[in-house]
Amino acid sequence: xxxxxxxxxxxxxxxxxxxxxxxxxxxxxxxxxxxxxxxxxxxxxxxxxxxxxxxxxxxxxxxxxxxxxxxxxxxxxxxxxxxxxxxxxxxxxxxxxxxxxxxxxxxxxxxxxxxxxxxxxxxxxxxxxxxxxxxxxxxxxxxxxxxxxxxxxxxxxxxxxxxxxxxxxxxxxxxxxxxxxxxxxxxxxxxxxxxxxxxxxxxxxxxxxxxxxxxxxxxxxxxxxxxxxxxxxxxxxxxxxxxxxxxxxxxxxxxxxxxxxxxxxxxxxxxxxxxxxxxxxxxxxxxxxxxxxxxxxxxxxxxxxxxxxxxxxxxxxxxxxxxxxxxxxxxxxxxxxxxxxxxxxxxxxxxxxxxxxxxxxxxxxxxxxxxxxxxxxxxxxxxxxxxxxxxxxxxxxxxxxxxxxxxxxxxxxxxxxxxxxxxxxxxxxxxxxxxxxxxxxxxxxxxxxxxxxxxxxxxxxxxxxxxxxxxxxxxxxxxxxxxxxxxxxxxxxxxxxxxxxxxxxxx
Length: 507
Hints:
- This protein is of the alpha+beta class.
- The chain has three domains: 49-168, Glutaredoxin; 177-458, Rossmann fold (3-Layer(aba) Sandwich), CATH 3.40.50; 468-507.
- 32% of the residues lie in helices and 25% in strands.
- The chain has helices spanning 3-32, 49-56, 79-94, 109-117, 162-174, 197-204, 238-249, 277-283, 425-428, 433-446, 452-455, 469-506; strands at 62-68, 98-103, 123-129, 132-138, 140-146, 149-153, 180-184, 208-212, 226-230, 253-257, 261-263, 269-271, 285-287, 291-293, 297-304, 307-320, 336-338, 345-347, 356-362, 367-370, 386-388, 391-398, 412-417.
- The strands form seven sheets. Strands 8-7-9-10-23-22-19 form a seven-stranded mixed beta sheet, sandwiched between helices.
- Strand 5 and strand 6 form a beta hairpin.
- It is globular, with a radius of gyration of 30 Å.
């Protein structure tokens, strides 16, 4: 071996050692520097800015105990790892203020009693063992503790909404004051136990939610932050109006979901005279007694004898992304909202001076508003009405003037939505995104906009923005046959080019 070959081998050895050293250093830093790339549109696999800030701003230790049984069905095996990955992000952004522990309760009776008291149920799973299915008991829950207080997630079935649940639980534990939300009961308003139980339970996960049964001896308490009236059907009296007026002008947040036209079970329609105009007009809004029809609409199911059929129903206008106020964080990232038998809302400009106005949801500019001779049958031919773009949900904020004379003492909030049915349990089964809209309204009033960005990840529907049938058909068939056409076209071009090259070689 000559001297040159010797030095070449030495140089190669040194190069290999340097490369290994670099890889070792990079590997070391990879465990100490936390970063990940998320290319999804809504950053579905990364914590939102609100969650990062919530974790980073913690003043004391939050203990998180995840109770996962070791014996789980195959479809849940990866769930523990996915939950662990999300919790690792919280730990990193908290600077160690969040402590996470995974626990398998197994047959520990003391732990199982603690879980029962924390509201985490014991579940039953079907597991294949010894060539047959067996039923085993297990847990899939999480408990948060902070300053002697606890919150829990009873069952974690997937990670789709887990970030929202974790952040909202931490906020509820660490916030100095939790907002009090009241549902008005009376005047034919929706019952929280039978009609809007899903919305009631969702809000209860974060807020102190109660019912407001107003009467001569039961007033609206001063500690109530937001009052929600869903679908009233009978008239309010003067005492009730004065109570609502006093609540708003003293800085409360009033949310009214009301029908301008009441629709019966047999598709009969009558104007819904509940008298709210007496105070709403004083605040600068008017709920019209009409129904809005839109070419962009939701699907409705109708029964005819023993048969049922589903079709697009113009009386269920569907608000898509372009119909939401893009300057309002509560609705800017929403994709759809379906309002059954909705009425339009007018803003009275000369009575809203000094108020901030947000047109939360609007119909398309091809919508139609019908004020009489309501023909609600899906086969009915619609005639008359006025065409245009209509307000379906409006928000006003500022210092309101009292409907009974005098100015308000504190800035308040008023949200009026021209439909009282869109958050009913029966309707949410087919249109779950409606609940996102409702929750965002309450969050924006009570907690600010922190949680709204997280919930936007839960959007389940992304409708085609253009509702014209030719455009829908083109996109539909393009999606079905487009890739096949591209592959065939590519093959034909390759075949043509190869034939051309062969001919040139022969020549």
